[in-house]
């Protein structure tokens, strides 16, 4: 390789001289020689970065999809496809990598079938059958000049991560909707459109839609909003109450009738938005819908489990079931990340513990969790720390690092390390 400081470039005579001094047999070489030159000082290549791609990202590029970076001034940058999110960080390369546009590889540098790498085994046979002189075996060699565009000493390493939804929830909570009478107290500068939020939140488009579902966001007057929990419960309670009022089978809920019934009580956008979130089309029954039991059960449980209150488990389950429509059941799995059971005494109790209200620092969260409850099973604590997991970092690994385990009556519990 040459350092191209002036106008000097290699010639064919130079190449032949090098081959001769290197004591190489030109008949064993392909016919195209490429002279590679280091970039001159006039070449600006700071805008070139080496990016690691996995199979998913490579497939997205082949399909014509875009990869895009996201991150605010104080945030670590992430790389997103339409479906996944990747953490991005710089990593050093042990050997420098050169970027040479249009560089030819072995097979492309041969113009003779005999000299093709696939036919290299035939070279010795040809020699034994042909005693021609060097002049007679003179090859038509060509020379191509190649310029290095950049020299890489590091690359951008990508690691798939869970979508960072917490910022989405924090932004939406700034403008909780609790009825038209309270809209005058909302700071309008904190109202965001769908597009503004999507550009801000560090996750893929698919994951962003999942995040909106997670926080039960609806579009109200061109802005994405979440409802204040008691207001949301009140509207949902009226909506599901129509099942008994109209004697609808549980899987034959009518959308238009539901919206019309709440006319004057809540804005149509709110009722329609909640209907889209809390129901799904009933299979085989056109224009009929079924409420999602888990979502309805959770909003009711959240309303009963007010922060600071503690209930006997049997009393809570009874109140919870009575508040649900007849054909819906309350199940403990619906309380995941919403409430915790305390079964250490003779009487079992339950109290509120909402995962969305916990600290984002894992040390602070662990301290708070063990302050709230002295010992946990892996299943109990999982919904409260899975936020910190990755493809390589499981809940079990996190507990081994931040807690210590003990066995009691055949059950493994985790307690604070200190």
TrEMBL record:
Q: Tell me, what's a Pfam family for it?
A: Dcc1
UniProt keyword 4Fe-4S, yes or no: no
Q: Name one GO biological process term.
A: maintenance of mitotic sister chromatid cohesion
Keyword terms of this UniProt record: DNA replication
The domain of life for this entry's organism is: Eukaryota
An example Gene Ontology CC term for this record: Ctf18 RFC-like complex
- Report the PANTHER family cross-referenced here: SISTER CHROMATID COHESION PROTEIN DCC1, SISTER CHROMATID COHESION PROTEIN DCC1-RELATED
Family per similarity comment:
Belongs to the DCC1 family.
- The protein here is known as Sister chromatid cohesion protein DCC1
The organism's lineage is:
Eukaryota, Metazoa, Ecdysozoa, Arthropoda, Hexapoda
């Amino acid at each position: 390789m040459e350092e191209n400081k002036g106008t000097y470039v290699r010639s064919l005579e130079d190449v032949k001289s090098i081959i001769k001094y290197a004591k190489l047999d030109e008949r064993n070489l392909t016919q195209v020689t490429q002279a590679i030159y280091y970039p001159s000082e006039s070449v600006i290549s700071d805008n070139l970065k080496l990016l690691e791609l996995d199979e998913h990202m490579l497939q997205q590029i082949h399909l014509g999809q875009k990869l895009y970076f996201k991150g605010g001034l104080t945030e670590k940058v992430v790389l997103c496809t339409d479906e996944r999110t990747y953490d991005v960080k710089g990593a050093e390369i042990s050997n420098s990598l050169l970027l040479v546009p249009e560089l030819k590889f072995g097979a492309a540098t041969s113009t003779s079938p005999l000299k093709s790498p696939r036919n290299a085994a035939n070279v010795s046979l040809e020699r034994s059958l042909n005693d021609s002189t060097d002049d007679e075996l003179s090859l038509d060699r060509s020379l191509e000049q190649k310029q290095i565009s950049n020299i890489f000493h590091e690359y951008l390493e990508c690691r798939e991560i869970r979508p960072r939804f917490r910022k989405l929830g924090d932004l939406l909570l700034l403008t909780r909707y609790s009825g038209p009478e309270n809209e005058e107290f909302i700071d309008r500068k904190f109202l965001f459109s769908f597009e503004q939020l999507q550009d801000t939140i560090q996750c893929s488009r698919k994951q962003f839609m999942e995040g909106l579902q997670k926080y039960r966001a609806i579009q109200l007057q061109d802005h994405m909003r979440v409802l204040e929990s008691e207001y949301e419960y009140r509207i949902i309670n009226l909506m599901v109450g129509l099942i008994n009022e109209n004697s609808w089978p549980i899987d034959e809920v009518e959308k238009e009738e539901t919206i019309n019934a709440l006319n004057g009580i809540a804005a149509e956008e709110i009722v329609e938005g909640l209907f889209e979130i809390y129901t799904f089309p009933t299979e085989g029954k056109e224009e009929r819908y079924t409420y999602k039991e888990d979502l309805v059960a959770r909003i009711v449980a959240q309303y009963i489990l007010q922060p600071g209150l503690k209930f006997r488990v049997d009393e809570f389950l009874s109140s919870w079931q009575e508040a649900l429509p007849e054909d819906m059941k309350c199940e403990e799995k619906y309380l995941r990340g919403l409430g915790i059971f305390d079964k250490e005494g003779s009487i079992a109790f339950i109290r509120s513990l909402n995962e969305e209200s916990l600290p984002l620092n894992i040390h602070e969260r662990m301290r708070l969790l063990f302050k709230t409850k002295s010992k946990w099973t892996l299943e109990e604590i999982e919904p409260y720390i899975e936020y910190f997991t990755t493809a390589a970092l499981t809940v079990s690994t996190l507990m081994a690092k931040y807690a210590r385990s003990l066995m009691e009556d055949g059950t493994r519990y985790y307690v604070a390390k200190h």
